Amino acid sequence: MDLKTASSLHRLRLVSAPEAVSFLLLLVCSVLKRTTDFNAVPVMGAVHGVLFVLYVLFWLDAWNRTKWSLGTAAVYFLLSVVPFGGFFADRKLKAEADSAVIASRAKAAEGVNA
């Protein structure tokens, strides 16, 4: 993988955890709306919606650059709609991005030595 692929994975990773947090906060706000007079659903819904759209856009970019199989791409998408899934996606993406950076640096060093 090249550095553009690694940065694509990094962008996806950067939005995965906040998207997961916003989803959990939206669930809490939904419960509070039904049990109290507190209604933050419109605000949290908008915040979560923006983060989810960013996640999907970055997911599509990462899928295009990494050439993931359909199964791998589906897993990353499903992790965005499952509570706590964004945290698992973040961990998996960190490992994948780190290995991409290491591979890119090794390739660059190989070209210098040759």
> What portion of the residues fall into strands of 2 or more residues?
under 5%
Count of extended strands? 0
Molecular shape: elongated
Major pleated sheet: none
Compute the number of helices.
Answer: 4
CA-based gyration radius: 17 Å
What kind of assembly state do the chains in view correspond to? single chain
The low-confidence runs, each spanning 5 or more residues with pLDDT under 50, are none
Query: Helix coverage percent of residues?
Result: over 70%
Please trace the helix and strand order, writing H or E for each element: HHHH
Mean pLDDT: 89
Describe the secondary-structure layout.
Blueprint: H1 3-35, H2 41-66, H3 70-81, H4 85-113
Structure overview:
By secondary structure, this protein is mainly alpha-helical. 88% of the residues lie in helices and 0% in strands. The protein is built from 4 helices and no strands. It has helices at 3-35, 41-66, 70-81, 85-113. Helix 3 crosses helix 4 (85-113). The chain starts with a helix and ends with a helix.
